[in-house]
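Subject: for your reference before the review

Hello V.,

The reviewers asked for a structural picture of the protein, and I figured it would be easier to keep everything in one thread rather than splitting it across files. Below is the amino acid sequence we used in the manuscript, unchanged from the supplementary table.
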Amino acid sequence: MRGLLAYSGLTTKVRAMTGQLLTRDQYRAMAGLESVPEAVEFLRAFPAYSGVFPDMDSEDLHRGTIERLLAGSLYRDYARLYRFSNIKQRRFFKLYFMHFEIDIMKSCLRNAAAHQPVPVGLSRYEEFFRSHSKLDLSAIGTAATTDEFIDSLEGTVYYPLLARIRDSGDGGHFDYEMALDLYYFNVTWKAIKKNIPKREQETILQGFGTKLDLLNLQWIYRTKRYYTIPGSEVKKLLIPIRYRLRNSQLEQLIAAESMEEYFSALSETWYGSQTKQSALDEKPNLEILYDVILAHIHRTAAARNPYSIASLYSYLYFKEDELRKIVTVIEGIRYRLDAGEILDIIEKHETGGNAT
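And here is what came back from the structure prediction:
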C-alpha cells in the first residue's frame, strides 16, 4: 500500500509516456523511407520528437548531430518525471543523472582529442542542467584539446580524477574514458546501497548489477575475439564489482584459451543459464546477448513492481533503447540498406534468437 500511495501518480505518468514509445509497425514504416530528411520528418509527427529537430539542411543531419538532438528527448522526459517525483524518489533521479554527465563528457572528450570541438547543443536544457550539474556545457563542448577539456572540468568531482591521469604522463584517451566509467560505476553502486530505500534496492541493483556483469563479460569476450591481452592485464580493465558473477567464474573466463572454452565457462554462470545451451554452442554475439538479458530484466522488474523505482528505471532504459533503434534505422537509410535488413538488425537485439 505504501508503494501504491507513493508511486501512483508517477506510475500513471510513466505508463502514459511508455504508451508513446515507437511500435514495431512504426519502426517498419520509418525503415521503408528513402532519405534521412524523410526519417526526421517522420519523427517530427510524434509528440516525443516534435520539438527535438530544428529546421536543418539535409547535409547537417549527420549521425553525431542526430544523436545529440535525440538525446534532448531523453533529457526532456527525465525532467518531466523529475518534476513529478517526491523528495525520496529524486534520490534515484540524481543517481541516474550522473549517467547523462558521463555520456556527454565522453563524447566531448573524443571531439577534443580529435581537435574537432562540437558544441553540446543543449541550450534548451541548460537551465535544467545547471540545477543538477556543475558541468560547464559550453566549455566542455568547445574544448579543442584534451588539456582544454580537462581544465574545463575544474570545480567538478571529475577534474581531479582526469587531472591526476594527465599529470602522471602515462594516460591516453582510453584511460580517461575508463576512469570516468569506473568512477560512475563505483559511486552509483555505493549510493544505491546507501541512499535507495532497502525495499527498493534489489530492484535497482538487479538492473545495474546485471549491466556491470555483462560489461565485464563483453570485455573478456572482446579480448578473446579481437585482441591478444595477458590475463593479468585483462583483470586490471574489469569493473571491480560483482553481482551474479563469482570471482572464480571470471578467472575461468579470463583463462579460456579459445572461444569454445569461453562459452563453456559462460554456460556455468547465471548468464549462461538465461540462454539456451544450443545457442551458446553456436557462440552468440555477446553484444546482442547484453541487450536481450537487460531488456528482459527491466521488463520483468517493472511488471512485478509497478509501484516502485523499477517503473522509472525501466522506462528510462527503454527510452534510451528507442533512441539507439532510431539511430540504427536512420543510419540504415543513409547507407541504403533494405528495410528488411534494418528491421533484422533491430529485432536481433530484441530477441537475440537465443534468450529463453
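For the response letter, the relevant points are probably these. DSSP finds 19 helices and no strands in the chain. The chain has a mean pLDDT of 88.

Happy to draft the paragraph if you're swamped.

O.
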